[in-house]
Amino acid sequence: MAVVTAPTDADWRSRIHPVLPWLGGIAVLSLLPLVTRTAYDQYLLNIIAINVLLAVGLNIVKGFAGQVTVGHVAVMAIGAYASAVFSVHLGLPFWLALPAAMAVCAAVGLLVGIPALRLEGAYLALATLGLAESVRIVISGTDWLGAAMGFEGIPPPQIGGFVMETHLRYFFVVMPIAVMGIYISFAILRSDMGRAFKAIREDQLAAAASGVHVAKFKLIAFVLSALYAGCAGSLKAHMAPGYLNPNDYSLQEMVTLLLMVIFGGIGHIWGAVIGAIAVTIINDLTQDYYTYRMAIFGGVIVLTVMYMPRGIGGMVEDWLVRRRFAALRAATKARQATP
Amino acid sequence: MAIGKWALLAAPLLALAAIPAQAQAQEGVIRIGVTLRMVVENGLKYGQMVKDEFDAVNAAGGINGRKIEVQLLDDECKPDKGVSNVNRFIHQTQVDLIIGSTCSSVSMPMVDIVTKEAIPMIIPQSTNQDLTKKGSPWVFRVPVSERFYAAVHAKWLAENVGKKVAYLVTTDTAGIGFAKQYQVYMKKAYNVDPVIEVQAQETDLDFRAALLKIKSMNPDVLAIGGQADAIARVSQQSFEVGIPSRVRRVAASAASNAPVPELGGDAVKGLIYAAAFNCNDERPEAQAFVKMTQTRYNVRCPDHDFSQAYDTVQIVKQALKAASLKLNAGSHAADRLAIRDALAGIKDFRGLASGPINFCAEPTPQCRDGNRTGILVEYTKGGKDYETRVLARVSFEADFGL
């Protein structure tokens, strides 16, 4: 006689396609504009979504693979300008300019990744710093990119006659892409590739000894990260008022981006997301206190590094581990107490 | 330690909760958003002065009995910040008028936004000529456009010094605009090309290599495009590499900023620049302004950005007085239109500027570049106690340089 058992939690979860919860997430987030007070809040949501993409992308190369880079904002600039050039000079619609700009950034990521094969730590940081500054300088001196005066007239995305030029409409472009970016990042982390990245981060020699092709996976990490930066750059370029300027891609922006990832917790995807949201909101709320704003930012970095070096993500992980141990200890105690 | 960590996490959240939500639009109040570059000491003082001037208006009972509420934000000379500030002014604070910005690269995207959202904007300091060429009916400019500035010094130098000009320009909007306009004027008026043009970075500290190259070309004039610190350094280093004093140094209008003579010392003696104000101006209103800045802001000799910020406030006050405002929940569009039309009605405003300021209704540079008179100023002494003198004053037709 067959024994019928009640379905367990695991059975129930395994029957749901992994993409479904994310689609649910997009559906829930689509309601967000309903609770915003003004169009400015919607503008801020769009900036948050772009920053989330940037931070999650940086987390791949820095958090997963443990490679130091300070050139992420420069790759974003390349993505933004590439998308602008494809749209304005070549007449491509946003939906083609976006993947084309990402492809350009992937190539750049590959180039940036090459020094990473021979350099580590501070030396790699210096190499990527060189990229960051040189990109800004080249743009500043290139007339057909608008030079120091900026690149104007980048059109917003449109579907048929429906132009996504308002902050509200643009939210429905950036938000799903940001959620998709988070999902892909989780998929990478859970894949063999993600495990290879983590092995490289922990110990390159040990990873190589275990059969991980260190050079290949380092390059892949840089390319994936650059794809995210390119996507964020393109989204930024096409957002109203469709204007780019090299001054917006300086080291100051890179430090802010690093703060997002450090504050959120290096290596934690949700940490990067929370970091991007928190830093963008803090940045906005401190605008009125312009005299002290940079001091507040500096203070947050110092306090984070001193008291929670693993960021919010690390704190949550510690808490979960402690909770799991406490539950195990309680269960063991209960078993021992049972005669 | 665990509690400490949680406290740290909670701190920003508590901070967010502690910051009061943006004040809701209050009826009967004129709201003005001001965005300037305030990352430098001078910028902070310009911003503070603008705020103080409007506070003084409120203390005296307001304009037509209406109080003025000012939101002052720093854009750090970064276009992204300027865009963010303007979005905030328009959608959150719901301002009736925007004043900004200092840097042309910031004002550029702001023009597009205010045009789309139909908000009047008055530019206190940006000089790039494209700002008014965009043809926005909502934009007015107080400072002298670079299309006039270039001709002020270009004509004087060509007639009094020579036509062989070497350019050393940093890659910032003001520097590039200055060099471009100077070159265009020389080509058009005298059919002369640059002897040499060298570009440097805004962050560069050592210009000696470029200056040695320039020295070898034996120019009549060394044109320096850039911000104040670059102008000071180039001036100093040009003497260090042996470019003789007979080669006249001319710089972008940022040369009027106090750090130039203070950093450059004796090297700035003889340096000339076009500006809209000189603190040695003997008019009583100019001397009263100089005294006010000395007393309130500890500025010995206010530069033309200071005077332009002051003039902007006075023009705004005059326009607000003339505008018929309802200032209730449903009158935003009408109030903004009334302020715009009142600004367009400003005629022959005589403030601190080098010439009268005139606006009119047409959304053209002829109508919206308010000041068409530039003065040519020379440093006669460098250092903390620097001195200047006015070499020339030139007025232009409205369509000059278009």
The biggest beta sheet of chain B is recorded as: 7 strands, mixed
Shape of chain B: globular
Structural class of chain A: mainly alpha
CATH architecture of the largest domain in chain B: 3-Layer(aba) Sandwich
Number of DSSP strand runs of chain B: 13
Indicate the structural class of chain B. alpha/beta
Question: What is the number of beta strands of chain A?
Answer: 2
Strand content of chain B: 15-25%
Cα-atom radius of gyration of chain A: 22 Å
**SSE series of chain B:** HEHEHEHEHEHEHEHEHEHEHHHHEEE
Helix content of chain A: over 70%
- Name the chain pair with the biggest interface and residue counts per chain: A-B, 40 and 44 residues
Rg measurement of chain B, Å: 22 Å
Average predicted confidence as pLDDT of chain A: 90
> Order of SSEs of chain A, N→C?
HHHHHHHEEHHHHHHHH
> Into which percentage range does the β-strand content of chain A fall?
under 5%
CATH superfamily of the largest domain in chain B: Response regulator
Shape of chain A: globular
How far apart the termini of chain B lie comes to 67 Å
Largest sheet of chain A: 2 strands, antiparallel
Work out the helicity level of chain B: 40-55%
Task: Summarize, please.
Chain A is mostly helical. Chain A contains 15 helices and 2 strands. The longest helix of chain A is centred in the last third of the chain and has 27 residues, at about 310-335.
